[in-house]
Specification:
157 residues, mainly alpha, 2 domains, 7 helices
């Protein structure tokens, strides 16, 4: 008797996304809210984690986990504000799929002076695009400033 090995069916061919895991964690959080059988602290923790993962949208779960586990603690400066971020720090925040929209809005407001109300109305992807544009603009200004300091010497064009 030849038995075929068990092969799961369904969507395993398509990678799981962070948002899908986030939705699942939020449903588990709701189960833990039961006052008699649940655990309210666990429920709140699962809800927070689920919400954070929902921000990753369609990013593959593997990439989200890599972003979280990359030992980048030196990258996340413990600043009271984001004003002091270097352009490279801002770029690293933008490249992480786990950076929440609220953090991006704060960076845009404090670091680049973009109106908070404008950024809050945009989807996360458009906030990232707006911050990339501000980043590139500041880089251009830095290049122009350096060129002006040199007085055009050694100019190649």
């Amino acid at each position: 008797m030849n038995k075929k090995p068990f092969q799961p069916r369904g969507r395993l061919k398509k990678p799981l996304t962070g948002a899908e895991v986030g939705r699942y964690l939020k449903s588990l959080a709701l189960l833990q809210r039961d006052p008699r059988m649940g655990n309210l602290e666990l429920s709140e923790a699962l809800m927070s984690l689920g919400k954070a993962l929902l921000e990753t949208k369609s990013a593959p779960l593997e990439r989200v986990i890599d972003d979280i586990t990359k030992n980048d603690q030196g990258f996340l400066p413990e600043l009271a504000s984001f004003r002091g971020l270097t352009l490279e720090d801002v770029r690293r925040y933008l490249d992480r799929s786990t950076t929440q929209k609220g953090e991006l809005v704060t960076i845009g407001t404090e670091r680049f002076g973009i109106a908070k109300s404008r950024l809050e109305r945009l989807p996360r992807e458009e906030v990232v695009a707006a911050l990339r544009a501000a980043l590139e603009h500041e880089e251009s200004l830095n290049i122009i400033s350096e060129e002006a300091k040199r007085g055009g010497q050694l100019r190649s064009s």
